[in-house]
Amino acid sequence: MRVIVVLIGLAMLQGGSRPGVESAIRSPQSSSLVVRIDVIAADARGRVVDNLRPADFIVRDEGVVQPVESAPFLRPTADDGRLIALFLDEYHVSAEATTRVREAVARLVDQLLAPEDMLVVMKPLDSLFTIKLTRDRDLARAAIQSFEGRRGDYAPRNNYERNFMAGVPQRIEKARTQVALWRSTPLPSILRRSPIAGKPSSW
């Protein structure tokens, strides 16, 4: 069971869009880090592309092109679907980009996910304790349609924001970034032990 976390909004804040989830390990042969990135590749018609080679990818780190050692294609089976979390960071996406984000994420769900993939869609103030993976795409679409970019809009919308994220814009921005990072960072480990809709928690 593979775990993929896609951050919408937070990745842009940190300097670039990063498809899939990154993991880094230190190579035993050197002091360099080997970074693994899950990528979903599709053509103009939304069909999955399964014949890409390392030369077909360009990876940049702070503007510097990095070597790509391998690009294996992994097709999940009915018993090995992926656990996918879509984290929609409303705090760092402008209101003007709301429709574009909704449409892009909806296309990902409708065209690039396999039927066996398990999915949860989250936003910054959603409780980590309520994560529930499911194959019900209608639930995902409803959550995506409720997404609303709020960058620059500091009006509180619930008691948590009113009590803990108030003040001048600089203070609110700092608090929003901390919330987004705190909510998204533990998602991979939480997904692995999360109850799955239709299956017992011990699964």
Helix content: 25-40%
**Sheet having the most strands:** 3 strands, parallel
Give the spatial strand order of the biggest sheet: 1-6-7
How far apart the termini lie comes to 11 Å
Mean of residue pLDDT?
76
The secondary-structure class comes to alpha/beta
Q: What is the β-strand count?
A: 7
Shape verdict? globular
Oligomer: single chain
Runs in which pLDDT lies below 50 for 5 or more consecutive residues are 10-28, 197-203
Order of helices and strands: EHEEEEEHEHHHH
The count of helical stretches stands at 6
Beta fraction: 15-25%
What Rg is obtained from the alpha carbons, in whole angstroms?
18 Å
Task: Output the keywords.
28% helix, alpha/beta, globular, single chain, 203 residues, three-stranded parallel β-sheet, two-stranded antiparallel ribbon
Structure report:
The chain has 203 residues and is an alpha/beta fold. It has a domain at 2-16 and 76-192. The protein is built from six helices and seven strands. The strands form three sheets. A three-stranded parallel β-sheet has the order 1-6-7. β2 and β3 form a beta hairpin. Residues 10-28 and 197-203 have low confidence and may be disordered.
